[in-house]
Design brief:
Keywords: Membrane, Transmembrane, Transmembrane helix. With 302 residues, the chain is mostly helical. The chain has a single domain, classed as Up-down Bundle (Rhopdopsin 7-helix transmembrane proteins), CATH 1.20.1070. It is globular, with a radius of gyration of 22 Å.
Amino acid sequence: MMLFVLFAMVITTIVGLYRAKSLEKMLKVFLANLLVSVLATGLVMLVLLLLTQVLIFSSAPRDLHICRVLIWGLLSCSGVRFFSLTANSLLTLLVVVHGKKKIRKSWIFTLLASIWFVPVLIHLYILIPVVYPVFYYGNFGCFPLNEDSNGLATVRLVSSSLSIIASSVIPLIMCVVMPSVMFCYLRQNTMSAHRASYNKGLAKLALFLITGNFLNFAGLVLITIVAYASQEAAGYLLCIFWVVCLFPTPCFVYLYLKPVREAINTMLCPWRLHSGVIPVASSSSASHQQTSSISPPSNRPI
């Protein structure tokens, strides 16, 4: 049930993001990519859940390769989420410091491709059976196996540690450093009030998304610790925690981005427009007040 609620939230947020015309197009692309990575993680979790139910009520053989591929997909999607948040922070920094016009489309395409391919490559070691053995706990739960029957426990531990550092720790540090650099830049440079408000809105958005990154990192570390220290059913509780960690991203996009929030409210509650609860976009003063924190300045059209 939690996963279906998450899917509804993410899809609705993506549609609202698309309908928010006052946002930077590049920012919308990277935020949509972040939401898609959350959706992909949820889909892998759903497949794991369905596999568990099938194995409980059937006598089908336990295929360890499928188990290993699902774990690889889950950790790869988690890495994509970290890289997406880092890319969003990097893009925001470049827009604030250099402006949108100096950012080439080839850079954007390269960055988007790297967000997906690098985490997939980092976690390829999971597909090697001798390096990353797996097992079915209770004949249906799919978890990594902590054993040293082949003498490769050290290799497995080093590989897991390096993958966490490369796909989680480094992106997390960058997500903290880049918004800090943005705030320092905004303090040291004078600009128009509208431009300053716009840039601060972008910087605060990147800073707020760090919270979701910390939750993702906590869930990944806890699951890794349990996988290597225990084979108990506590892993199920950590999987639930990992699902909960997916919710902050669509929530923050909805709560913090006013154009997205208004687009979603209009889409879900169109009758509120006629009751006067949501101001009509034709009012220039109201529209300027609602989008000044994140909409682009008038002297730099999108």
